[in-house]
């Protein structure tokens, strides 16, 4: 599932955007200032960031600059009341992918998000197919040659994440932060155990494999 961080200090607007995007099938986290957002980005893996510009402590421009120092590729949308060309120019020069002027039409926001995710090759489909392997998000089921794979809910989400980003390396800490409560689990060994179980359940699938990248984590490799 695509995970989005919404950074907006207006609590009501933040909640409205989050609720709308969740109804569209996204996983959404909310932040209310730039410093908190940067901490969340450090601890979790996000597929896209939506940020206001005018916020206390750290504004949207500075947040984008800090993000770009760490991640050159994550899609970022600025959403602001500042509609003058100079503000837009500064935003794009900072490294944003899109710029929306408030009040924002949420349906248009959804269209912009999908367009950006397509360009970034991030899978937003509710059905994912790799050869004989099929994952259906609405059913929360996976199939190999039409036969159901008995994944747990967490196993399903992990595999879907991997297949949405083929060849991308996910560290154990990224996976822990996204799929487990870090307050309850402190050992990355938990991730290794789950990957072992997933591999066992995928033994009948020859279309891809989950590969260990020593010292870094795991990635999916699609077999040609």
**What general outline do the C-alpha atoms trace?**
elongated
Question: Proportion of β residues?
Answer: 15-25%
- Note poorly predicted spans: none
Rg from Cα: 19 Å
Widest beta sheet: strand line-up: 2-1-3-4-5
| Secondary-structure element series | EHEHEHEHEHEEEEHEHHEE
Number-wise, the strands total: 12
Q: In words, what does this structure look like?
A:
The structure is a single chain. With 224 residues, the protein is of the alpha/beta class. It contains eight helices and twelve strands. The strands form three sheets. The chain has a five-stranded parallel sheet with strand order 2-1-3-4-5, with helices on both faces. Helix 2 runs parallel beside helix 3. The protein is elongated and about 55 Å long.
Quick description:
Helices cover 41% and strands 23% of the residues. The chain is α/β, with parallel strands linked by helices. Helix 4 links the parallel strand 4 (76-80) and strand 5.
Topology summary:
Blueprint (H helix, E strand, L loop, with lengths): L2 E5 L3 H13 L3 E5 L2 H10 L4 E4 L8 H11 L5 E5 L4 H10 L3 E4 L4 H14 L7 E4 L2 E4 L4 E4 L2 E3 L3 H12 L5 E2 H8 L9 H13 L6 E6 L3 E6 L2
Parallel strand pairs: 1-2, 1-3, 3-4, 4-5
Antiparallel strand pairs: 6-7, 7-8, 8-9, 10-12, 11-12
Task: List the main descriptive attributes of the protein structure presented here.
four-stranded antiparallel beta sheet, 224 residues, single chain, 8 helices, 41% helix, alpha/beta
